[in-house]
């Protein structure tokens, strides 16, 4: 039965010592093709990590709003203090406050026009919240395929060594190809899983902010529609 190099025991001072292989040695043993693919996957991992934390902090900041914000807005609007309401929205500087501020600038026009203005502003806010999130979805799908590309390259190298071994199959000749195949597959799956989890987490966070915008916009429109 053939044994891989890391499992082959060596005799040291008459005792059998099992060899071990670090991650760095495993990558370096994968040949140039494997190292290039691992480098690409590492760059994708860095990009995914940066986008995740950048968007996470941005979404958290967007979701922060004073619990008494809408009550103050309704009081100002009811008392005809439109300028004070607009100033309050500018100070809050959040997606919700910007939507309400857009609606306030349309006060006096038909309710349908106010609703349309808020919806248009809402689409722009959602676009800003989702900026670069699609890149995470791309990475989560592309990384495993890049890893599988390394697997195919590694298997091709292994088959090439078998074909040129003259019938003498030596595991050492196959090592580089097998290392390339296995390491790139694992690396691709790891990056893909990280990207997939990060993407879905941001989608959930974004949906909460969108719901918050919709709820506050509806509350504002209902207040405008109340009989005076």
Automatic annotation (TrEMBL):
Residues 92-214 form the MotA/TolQ/ExbB proton channel domain. It is found in: Cell membrane; Membrane. Its main location: membrane. This is MotA/TolQ/ExbB proton channel family protein. It is a multi-pass membrane protein. The chain crosses the membrane at residues 32-53, 133-157, 177-199. InterPro entries: ExbB/TolQ_transport (IPR050790), MotA_ExbB_proton_chnl (IPR002898). One of its GO terms (biological process) is protein import. Keywords: Cell membrane, Membrane, Protein transport, Transmembrane, Transmembrane helix, Transport. GO terms for cellular component: plasma membrane. The lineage of its organism: Bacteria, Pseudomonadati, Bacteroidota, Flavobacteriia, Flavobacteriales. Belongs to the exbB/tolQ family.
């Amino acid at each position: 039965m053939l044994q891989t190099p890391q499992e082959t025991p060596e005799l040291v001072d008459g005792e059998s010592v099992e060899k071990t292989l670090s991650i760095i040695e495993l990558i370096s043993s994968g040949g140039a093709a494997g190292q290039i693919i691992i480098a690409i996957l590492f760059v994708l991992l860095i990009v995914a990590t940066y986008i995740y934390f950048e968007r996470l902090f941005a979404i958290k900041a967007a979701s922060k709003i004073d619990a008494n914000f809408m009550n103050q807005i309704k009081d100002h609007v009811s008392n005809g203090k439109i300028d004070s309401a607009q100033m309050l929205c500018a100070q809050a500087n959040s997606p919700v406050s910007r939507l309400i501020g857009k609606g306030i600038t349309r006060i006096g026009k038909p309710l349908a026009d106010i609703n349309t203005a808020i919806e248009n502003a809402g689409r722009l806010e959602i676009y800003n919240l989702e900026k670069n999130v699609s890149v995470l979805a791309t990475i989560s799908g592309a990384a495993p395929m890049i890893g599988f590309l390394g697997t195919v390259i590694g298997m091709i190298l292994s088959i090439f060594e078998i074909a040129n071994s003259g019938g003498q199959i030596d595991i050492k000749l196959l090592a580089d190809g097998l290392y390339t195949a296995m390491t790139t597959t694992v690396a691709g799956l790891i990056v893909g899983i990280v990207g997939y989890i990060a993407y879905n987490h941001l989608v959930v966070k974004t949906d909460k902010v969108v719901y918050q915008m919709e709820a506050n916009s509806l509350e504002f429109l209902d207040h405008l529609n109340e009989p005076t």
